[in-house]
Amino acid sequence: MELALSPDQKLLQESARGLLEQEYSLDRIRGMEAGEPRWSRDWWRKGAELGWAAAVVPEELGGGSVSGEGVRDLAVLAEELGAGVAPGPLLPVNVVLAGLVAAHGNGPDHTARIEALVAGESIATWAVYEPGREWTPSDPRLTAAPADRGYVLDGVKDRVEDARQADLLLVTAKAPDGVAQFLVPASTPGVTISEQWTVDLSRSFGEVRFEGVRVDADALVGAPGADEIVERQLQIAVIVQCAEVCAVLDRAFAMTTQWAFDRYSFGRPLASYQALKHRFADMRTWLEACHATTQAAAAAVQDESADAAELVSVAKSFVGERSLTILQDCVQLHGGIGVTWEHDLHLFLRRAILDQALYGTPADHRLRLADLSSL
Fold first, then answer.
1. Are 282 and 330 in contact (CB under 8 A)?
2. What per-residue confidence (pLDDT) applies to 138?
3. DSSP alpha helices (H): ranges in the chain?
4. Binning pLDDT at 50, 70 and 90, where does residue 3 land?
5. Which residues are CB-neighbours of 25 under 8 A, at least 6 positions away?
6. Rounded distance, CA 54 to CA 20, Å?
7. Average pLDDT, stretch 320-326?
8. How does residue 133 score in pLDDT terms, banded at 50, 70 and 90?
9. Which residues, including other chains, have CB under 8 Å from residue 370's CB and lie 6 or more apart?
10. What confidence score (pLDDT) does residue 203 get?
11. Which of 14, 207, 275, 360 is deepest in the core (most CB within 10 A)?
12. What pLDDT, on a 0 to 100 scale, did the predictor assign at position 1?
């Protein structure tokens, strides 16, 4: 994504690429079966040793970024995972850590859990979506009722990434004093997790039910009225998504361009036809714009700029919409082979379709832009 990476960022990129190529080839991802764990804890622990869960965590809490700009480092990592449509809890773990770090010093102390997540010894995910609802993080239906020395959680969350492999669930809830977040062990009595179907072969999601789940007061993350923290988590999630999708588009576009030079029709390579040249030019222009909007959003989130929310929504709405246009063109330009199971294109298309739908659709983010502009 960055036009010029620092030596440390290049090392981070190369180490991530090596681990991914060794463990999760596209052939292995294509062969994954329903119900099969998408990734192993040993593999994630290796990634954590390389800094995959440390970028947005300050050094005093056990983290640290290689460049001093954690959000940009995280985007570099996301690109590597996107290029190989790799599995792993990069997004959910870092989104949870972003929330824990933002709330640190304001409420119960979660330092030990932060350190365990950074080391890869524990896995966490963000339970924020609810059945039958679009992206409404500031208005959850799941309730947190005050009880003796704690709270009682009741409600349902769905589209929870890696729910069945997570040790901890960061749950958004409606408390008497506003939106609150709770760090709940997945093994807590009253928590029930069931797997959900997903179009992406390398990811898993689950529905999580909370039925009279009692948590201590120290499960609270920060304090009620956590809208700013939830916003920070959303921004991190969208940056990871957009960086992933940019890498997906790079890989698919390069694959399609090479195919157009290799595939002959009427004695000429497909790439020589003027009508197709125009299509490739359009796709390349959109692809560069995807990179530009993502890079601008990552810089704004890194600096916590006043326009970060706006630039994040610009990136998600543009990348989310144009990515599928580019990928569908790639499929069409491949012809019949582009819609076969054996070809890699559908793996990239699946990742982009899923990322478009999660953490706000392009339409949701255009509405956010209208709200931010007071329209």
1. no
2. 87
3. 7-23, 26-30, 41-49, 70-83, 90-103, 111-118, 227-262, 274-303, 308-334, 345-357, 362-372
4. low
5. 84
6. 18
7. 96
8. confident
9. none
10. 93
11. 360
12. 46
For residue 373, the surrounding DSSP H or E stretch is none
How many other C-beta atoms lie within 10 A of the C-beta of residue 337? 12
Q: Give the CA angle between residues 222, 233, 180 to the nearest 5°.
A: 35
125 and 169 Cβ atoms separated by less than 8 Å: yes
Q: Please, which residues have CB within 8 angstroms of residue 196's CB and are 6 or more apart in sequence?
A: 158, 159, 205, 206, 207
Sequence-distant (6+) residues with CB within 8 A of 36 are: none
Q: Residue 24: which residues within 8 A CB-CB, separation 6 or more?
A: 39, 84, 86, 87, 202
Please report, rounded to a whole number, the percentage of residues in the chain having pLDDT higher than 90: 79
79 close to 244: Cβ distance less than 8 angstroms: yes
**pLDDT tens digit string along 228-249?**
999 999 999 999 999 999 999 9
Sign of the Cα torsion 363, 367, 372, 374 reads positive
